[in-house]
Every structure is written in C-alpha cells, then in structure tokens.
Write a structure and sequence with these properties.
By secondary structure, the chain is α/β, with parallel strands linked by helices. Helices cover 32% and strands 23% of the residues. The chain has a single domain, classed as Spore Coat Polysaccharide Biosynthesis Protein SpsA, Chain A. The longest helix has 14 residues. The protein is globular.
Amino acid sequence: MSGIWAIVLAAGESKRMKVPKMLLPFNGMTMIEKVIENVIRSEVFRTLVVLGSYRDEILGSISHLPINHCYNVNYSKGMLSSVQCGFKNLPLNFDAVLVFPGDQPFIEPDVINLIINAYRETGKGIVIPVYRNKRGHPILIDSKYRDEIYTLEENESLRSLSDMHQKDVFELRTNSPGILKDIDTKEDYLNELNK
C-alpha cells in the first residue's frame, strides 16, 4: 500500500472558536468535509483523519467519505501529537504524507497535485508550498522522516523538522492564497462567509 497519503488534523479543541469549527457549515457541507473533499479530488492515494476533541460528532459528519481515521488520546497536547498519531496509524509502506490542518478548506486539489509533482520531480524529502514568500500548507514529508517525527519534542513542530533538514526542503511557489488561510475565530469564519 505504498503511495502518497494525506493526514488531516481534526483533533483540536477549537478554543478560540468556542464551538467545534470542523462542523461549521461551509459551501453546503461541514468545513472538515470540504477539506477532505479537496484531498479526495487530488492525486492523493488515501486519507487518514486524526480525531480528538468532538470525536463522535466529527466522525458522524465524515463517515460517508472514503477515509481511514484514528483517535489521538493526547490531542490536548497540541498539533504535533496529532501528527505523530497520524504517522503511527499509517501502513508500514508509503512514499510520503501530506499534512493538512482541518481548518483550511481553501487548499485546492490542483495545488495538492502541484506539491505531489514537485516531490516526484525534485527528489526532495520535504515540500512546502509558498505564496508571496510565506510558507503554507499542506507540507509533504517523505516516509524516511517517520521515525524522526516520533522523536520531536512536545514544543516542536513540523517546522522544526524542516529547519533541521534545510537542504532537503523544496519551496514550491504557488499563486494560491488558500495555502495560508485558516479559520481560527468566529470573525475569520464570518469574513469568509460574507465574501
């Protein structure tokens, strides 16, 4: 079962939003459904959703989709714990993983495919999309970094991994502001609805 997988991080507590933001209505579906739909419409092989807070409600929203899922018992420790949980629940053999925050519904399938193509063409182990000189999501990580991800400290992130392996990083320039847009607050959400 090799190929390029997606890990969608949907375990957060939505503290700033005060309601489970993954379940907010977005383009006729929930926000997490939109994120997953974008992934499924790309060249990604399989999708793994990491659940934590609001596990049952979110799973109920996405159970009709062709996904795998896992539960991060340590979700309150932050995003890295969910990344590690996701990697632990992947098959033994895979080529690379794209890591998606569950609150970024603007990452288009075409951009995802560009990242996959850049990985295949450059031979780099970490591919990061960039818009106007700012790094965004999703980050692609080669399977060779799997064990190293487990050893990252609680206060570290995937940024720490890319900092340690700068020569193996490819920055993919894109024309997509969606790689930077996340929805953290009610204000963010309402601003997007009113566009």
